[in-house]
């Protein structure tokens, strides 16, 4: 049994104390700074926290074009996706970012060095698209790269043009920037990413900054003053192996996630056809409890009932959007069995029982491992069955879990 040992627990409590005291210090600091002039207050905020845009208080939700369409995008697809987010009811559940990925611009900038929307696929331009998306009550995201070319090499990156591009995005009404890491000048991401952060801050429009650095230099350790989220992994693909590998890698950095800055194990593949229904439920459940961005990656205009059942599960979304904003961690592992847990507001706990193996298994979670006081009697809500179990639980909870499947509960102490 690979149980977390006592020293790990002590480290975690120490970390909590440090977090709380640093929050208190920030409060004291900010009350002092009322006396200072507004200018110096602002520069102080920028110094300590380059990205003070107030966004990402809960993980972002929406859609991104890449996983389903890769480079085959145009303004019609983006508009129809915005329409579909509304007509399916997904926008009401919180999915409100419509994010264009790579391949939206001409390879050449204009005479003044501005990015130019690709004439054959985005003839109306991005400003018109933003207006359309905003008219639906949604937000528009765009994509660039901290290099000379984006990963597709079909359009320029923003390296050396950060201020100009950030200003363009702000003028167009862009709400979210995914900033990739291809075709660079060889300098470190810790040199190139802050330049865009500052450019976005100067642009005058709050723009969610998604650092897509792929986890190469552990952006979880330096991303929080620079971005609202940071990729912790290589690109996901529509397979169990890739999904679970990204889940594992992302979990390592759990303690770095917090409101305003989230670990990002990459966008969702639910609905793209490469995994079973149970595997997609595992995918969505882990992303939800990991406080990952919930960015759908399927064709929203053509979703099956099964896909809709998964991504529109309001109880699972509520875990992701919980006000506490604490990422769940692996509490216990044994062979193919994993128990993931994390605290939620109201002294509740999110509990995931995961079977990664080829055969059905019985899985038991002990209060001891998931930070529930030993004598607590707990009520369990099964979020995929949509039912509160009649039995109350003391000390442990056991369930039978199919191969490549999970059970997801919210546990609420009742006595
Ligand atoms: C998908 O990801 C897995 C794990 O990272 C990798 O082994 C596999 O080669 C990838 N498949 C494709 C088609 O890219
Ligand atoms: C819609 O999805 C189904 C699979 O669920 C697929 O067979 C079909 O080709 C899709 N239609 C379009 C227009 O993409
Ligand atoms: C689980 O808890 C029940 C009730 O408290 C107890 O009877 C049982 O022995 C526990 N199971 C295990 C495996 O410890």
Automatic annotation (TrEMBL):
Its EC number is 3.2.1.22. The keyword Signal applies. Residues 334-411 form the Alpha galactosidase C-terminal domain. Keywords: Cell wall, Disulfide bond, Glycosidase, Hydrolase, Secreted, Signal. InterPro entries: Aldolase_TIM (IPR013785), GH (IPR017853), Glyco_hydro_27 (IPR002241), Glyco_hydro_27/36_CS (IPR000111), Glyco_hydro_b (IPR013780), Melibiase_C (IPR041233). It is found in: Secreted, Cell wall. It comes from the Eukaryota. One of its GO terms (molecular function) is alpha-galactosidase activity. Pfam families: Melibiase_2 (PF16499), Melibiase_C (PF17801). Residues 1-30 form the signal peptide. It catalyses: Hydrolysis of terminal, non-reducing alpha-D-galactose residues in alpha-D-galactosides, including galactose oligosaccharides, galactomannans and galactolipids. GO terms for biological process: carbohydrate metabolic process. One of its GO terms (cellular component) is plant-type cell wall. May regulate leaf (and possibly other organ) development by functioning in cell wall loosening and cell wall expansion. Belongs to the glycosyl hydrolase 27 family. This is Alpha-galactosidase. It comes from Raphanus sativus (Radish).
């Amino acid at each position: 049994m690979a149980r977390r040992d006592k020293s790990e627990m002590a480290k975690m409590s120490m970390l909590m104390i440090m977090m709380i005291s640093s929050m208190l210090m920030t409060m004291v600091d900010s009350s002092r700074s009322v006396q200072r002039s507004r200018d110096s207050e602002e520069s102080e905020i920028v110094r300590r926290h380059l990205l003070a845009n107030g966004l990402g208080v809960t993980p972002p939700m929406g859609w991104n074009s890449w996983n389903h369409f890769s480079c085959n995008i145009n303004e019609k697809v983006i508009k129809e996706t915005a329409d579909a987010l509304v007509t399916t009811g997904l926008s009401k559940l919180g999915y409100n970012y419509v994010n264009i990925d790579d391949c939206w611009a001409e390879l050449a900038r204009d005479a003044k060095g501005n990015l130019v929307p690709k004439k054959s696929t985005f003839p109306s331009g991005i400003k018109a698209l933003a207006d359309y998306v905003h008219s639906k009550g949604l937000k528009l995201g765009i994509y660039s790269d901290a290099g000379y070319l984006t990963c597709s090499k079909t359009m320029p990156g923003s390296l050396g043009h950060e201020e100009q591009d950030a200003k363009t995005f702000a003028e167009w009404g862009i709400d979210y920037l995914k900033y990739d890491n291809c075709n660079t000048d060889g300098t470190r991401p810790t040199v190139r990413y802050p330049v865009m952060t500052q450019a976005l801050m100067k642009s005058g429009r709050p723009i969610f900054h998604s650092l897509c650095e792929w986890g190469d230099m552990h952006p979880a350790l330096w991303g929080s003053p620079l971005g609202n989220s940071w990729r912790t992994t290589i690109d996901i693909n529509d397979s169990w192996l890739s999904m679970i590998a990204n889940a594992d890698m992302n979990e390592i950095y759990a303690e770095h996630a917090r409101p305003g800055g989230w670990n990002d194990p990459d966008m969702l593949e639910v609905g793209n056809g490469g995994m079973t229904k149970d595997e997609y439920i595992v995918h969505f459940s882990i992303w939800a409890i990991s406080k990952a961005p919930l960015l759908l990656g399927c064709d929203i205009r053509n979703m099956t009932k099964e896909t809709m059942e998964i991504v529109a599960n309001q109880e699972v979304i509520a875990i992701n959007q919980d006000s506490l904003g604490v990422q769940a961690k692996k509490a216990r592992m044994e062979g193919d069995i994993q128990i993931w847990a994390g605290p939620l507001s109201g002294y509740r706990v999110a509990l995931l029982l995961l079977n990664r193996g080829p055969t059905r298994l019985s899985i038991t979670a002990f209060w001891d491992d998931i930070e529930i006081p030993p004598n607590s009697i707990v009520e369990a809500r099964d979020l995929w069955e949509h039912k509160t179990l009649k039995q109350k639980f003391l000390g442990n909870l056991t369930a039978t879990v199919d191969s490549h499947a999970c059970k997801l509960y919210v546990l609420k102490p009742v006595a």
